[in-house]
Amino acid sequence: MTAKRVLLVEEVPVVRRSIREALEQAGHAVWEADNGRVALGLLEGMVFDALIADPWRAAGDDLDVLDQLRRLTPAVPVIALAGDRPDGARGAATATRALADGAAAVVAMPLDADDLVRTIAEVTAA
Predict the structure, then answer these.
(1) What is the SS3 string spanning the chain?
(2) Domain ranges in the chain?
(3) How does pLDDT run across 73-94, given as a tens digit for each residue?
(4) Do residues 79 and 52 make contact, with C-beta atoms less than 8 angstroms apart?
(5) What is the pLDDT along the chain (126 residues), one digit of tens a residue?
(6) Superfamily for the 5-124 domain
(7) By C-alpha distance, which of 106, 108, 104 is closest to 76?
């Protein structure tokens, strides 16, 4: 697997740390942002191979930020993290909306690190 430059946007520090650790263990370089606005700032001076974001979390409804990320970096695949309630409604709604807004893939939370690493490989394959 080729190492990728990944921008991770996640509000919850413990979740962000666990995702970063899993991606670094897989050989990827990870930059972190705790909200969409910070992520947009990082995009001004860096080039990433993939963006990972929880579109319902950081700084309000980040689906708007997801749309901005897609406009700024249309060639960079976005992987949306979709949390779920026991009835599945939130996860399904997040996945549907994120895909409609241009996400390349959706990974369910709680996170399976192997699934995320596979998804990065799939969406960045050229």
Answers:
(1) CCCCEEEEECCCHHHHHHHHHHHHHCCCEEEEECCHHHHHHHHCCCCCCEEEECCCCCCCCCHHHHHHHHHHCCCCCEEEEECCCCCCHHHHHHHHHHHHCCCCEEEECCCCHHHHHHHHHHHHCC
(2) 5-124
(3) 888 999 988 875 434 556 677 7
(4) yes
(5) 689 999 999 888 999 999 999 999 999 999 999 888 888 889 888 999 999 987 655 445 555 666 777 778 888 999 988 875 434 556 677 777 778 777 899 888 888 999 999 999 999 996
(6) Response regulator (3.40.50.2300)
(7) 104
